[in-house]
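Appendix C: a fully annotated inverse folding record. The material below is reproduced so that readers can follow the format used throughout the book. The structure is listed first as tokens, followed by the designed sequence.
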């Protein structure tokens, strides 16, 4: 019983410490994100690879409006609609970057009807931050290839469209024309710190319970019986 109690105590305590370590890693990640966001904005010529994740950008290019993708079932400000993703052909370069332009409401009566979208022609300036691929939702079966989709895989979209895509996307933070009506109340990334702290508390509580039960049943209770 002593060996079992020691093993269980060590195991649950180690799991609690591991959850605290995971929370510390998330805090360090958030600090790194804030550090990257505070650096000067990147221009077209400076765009590179995944190591630039979370950097601010100020890029110039022209919209490929015919390639716009509407990601369905995306919430913003308590409403469900579309995330609008449009490729931007970068000025002075031969490659393209996907831009998460903002959120647009969905027609509740006709799910296939797209809302009006003002897409300027000619060169535009886009301000934002670099991010990975758009967030994915659970999807049954294979993904669709139309304008309205549940998810967008940049690698598959590059093959489908024939575009030379950069490995990151831009989360746009400012309007690119006076007619721009897209919402950009992008939520801050959820690091899940409360989840890790909650799990740590559960493991430490279980550890304390095991110690308490061992002390009661193996040490205290036999003494009380002898005394009685």
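Designed amino acids, in order:
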């Amino acid at each position: 019983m002593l060996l079992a109690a020691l093993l269980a105590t060590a195991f649950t305590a180690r799991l609690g410490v591991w959850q605290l370590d995971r929370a510390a890693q998330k805090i360090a990640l958030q600090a790194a994100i804030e550090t990257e966001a505070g650096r000067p904005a990147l221009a077209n010529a400076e765009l590179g690879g995944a190591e630039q994740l979370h950097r601010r950008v100020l890029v110039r290019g022209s919209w490929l409006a015919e390639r716009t993708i509407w990601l369905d079932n995306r919430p913003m400000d308590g409403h469900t609609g579309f995330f609008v993703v449009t490729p931007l052909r970068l000025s002075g370069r031969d490659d393209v970057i996907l831009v998460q332009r903002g959120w647009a409401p969905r027609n509740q009566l006709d799910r296939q009807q797209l809302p009006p979208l003002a897409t300027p022609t000619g060169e535009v300036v886009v301000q934002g931050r670099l991010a990975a691929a758009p967030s994915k939702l659970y999807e049954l079966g294979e993904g669709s290839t139309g304008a309205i989709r549940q998810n967008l895989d940049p690698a598959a979209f590059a093959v489908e469209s024939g575009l030379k895509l950069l490995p990151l996307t831009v989360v746009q933070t400012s309007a690119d024309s006076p007619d721009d009506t897209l919402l950009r109340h992008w939520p801050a990334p959820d690091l899940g710190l409360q989840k890790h702290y909650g799990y740590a508390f559960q493991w430490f509580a279980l550890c304390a319970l095991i110690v308490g039960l061992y002390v009661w049943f193996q040490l205290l209770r036999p003494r009380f019986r002898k005394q009685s």
